[in-house]
Amino acid sequence: MALDDLFTPLTVGSLEVPNRFAMAPMTRQASPDGVPGADVAEYYRRRAAGGVGLIITEGIRLPNPAAGYPFSIPTLAGGEVLDAWRRIVAGVHAEGATVAAQLWHQGAERDDADGVVPVSPSGVDGLGRPKGRALQTDELQQVAQLYAQSAATARDVGFDAVELHGAHGYLLDEFLWARTNLRTDGYGGSLAARTRFPAEVVAAVRAAVGPDYPIIFRFSQWKGTDYTASIADDPSQLQQLLMPLVEAGVDVLHPSTRRHYVPAFPDQDSALSLAGWTKKLTGVPVIAVGSVGLQTQFRSEKRGQVIAPAPVDRLVEQFDAGEFDLVAIGRALLADPGWVNRLRANELDTFAGYDPATALASLA
User: Are 148 and 142 in contact (CB under 8 A)?
Assistant: First the structure.
């Protein structure tokens, strides 16, 4: 396999990634009272030492009670918390890698077991059921400022970039998705109107962090409540969705898919993945993701069906074709923190594949 190009550096604004491999953001709920401890620092340091060029953190709760739960999800506010993140950033940098903070508002998918009322575009969850309350129009800029303030804090702590979580049915994605956005106030209806608030969040973040600090935006078709969901049914709609985000200040797009090699729009007579279409339509750097490095079968969207994962050489083919600039790896890194180094050394034939028990053990 012609892997050499995947080990070349990439520069985006002030971000210089030493290779094209990223660690995908994966929620851990391992930070008591929102404070990431020494175990969290070691978790990230091991993946940086294992060869990953960019680490994207687990989702970090915005500093508002409605933004996320449980409180074992880390936050980004308070002296103890910020000192903890500084240690994490320093540990990653010491291993030669870079790190981005993923900023997360759960919207209607927030667990309300603690009595806090979730907020969302229309007060409905990903199944279309009433939950929580709808955000008032005059509240939206307050929420946008939560993102902006957190992004500025992340920059000041030493993070190399921020990622805005706009995927999987959480708050920003709830604005993008017609099922969860039933608004009639200019922030709902057409795709352009549904994109309006996420673009305003991006613009607020850009104003807070300055012109060169990289902003990544993660989006998805699929949701945690519906693997077959779609916010863009064809390339034209995808372009309508993404260009306002780019124009507002997004530097890198991170289209989350369950399988990186699946054609995004099969009826277009094209084998392009969602990452490929994203780059073709916007021209900005793109992060591909989705079952990279898996060697075991897994469940598909169709009940009872299992799918064999693609070999790593398929990933190389996509990179050579210009479909993406970085590739994010999740489960394979849980099972083997040194996956990237072993890929480079051509030692992956000794890798037994992702196993949940092995992955859980590696989280310690």
Answer: no
Gap between the Cα atoms of 322 and 252, Å rounded: 15
How many angstroms separate the CA atoms of 12 and 6, rounded? 16
CB neighbours (10 Å) of residue 8? Answer: 11
Distance CA 309, CA 163 (A): 27
Output the pTM of the full model.
0.93
- Give the integer Cα–Cα distance in Å for 171 and 67: 9
User: What is the spatial distance between Cα 276 and Cα 322, in angstroms, rounded to a whole number?
Assistant: 7
For 78-114, letters b (16+ CB in 10 Å) and e give: eeebbebbebbbebbeebebbbbbbbbbbbbbbeeee
Residue written as token pair 């779609």: 230
In angstroms, the Cα distances linking 202 to 53, 165, 233, 325 are: 24, 11, 24, 21
Residue 285, phi then psi, degrees to nearest 5: -60, 145
CB atoms within 10 A of CB 115: 6
Give yes or no for residue 358 having a pLDDT over 70: no
Environment class of residue 28 by beta-carbon count within 10 Å: exposed (0-12), middle (13-18) or buried (19+)? middle
In which band, very low, low, confident or very high, does the pLDDT at 308 lie, cut at 50, 70 and 90?
A: low
Residues acting as catalytic residues: 170
- What is the residue extent of each domain of the chain? 4-362
Tokens for 335, please give them. 């099972």
CB 317 within 8 A of CB 243: no
Hunting for tokens 């949940």 — which residue is that? 356
CA pair distance 330, 347, nearest whole angstrom? 19
Q: Which CATH number fits the domain 4-362, given the four candidates 2.30.30.100, 3.40.50.720, 3.40.50.1220, 3.20.20.70?
A: 3.20.20.70
Distance of CA 48 to the CA centre of its chain: 18
Spatial neighbors of 22 by CB under 8 A, at least 6 apart, are: 52, 53, 54, 55, 56, 287, 326, 327, 328, 329
Identify the band that residue 310 occupies on the pLDDT scale cut at 50, 70 and 90. confident
The β-bridge partners of 22 are 54, 328
SS3 23: strand
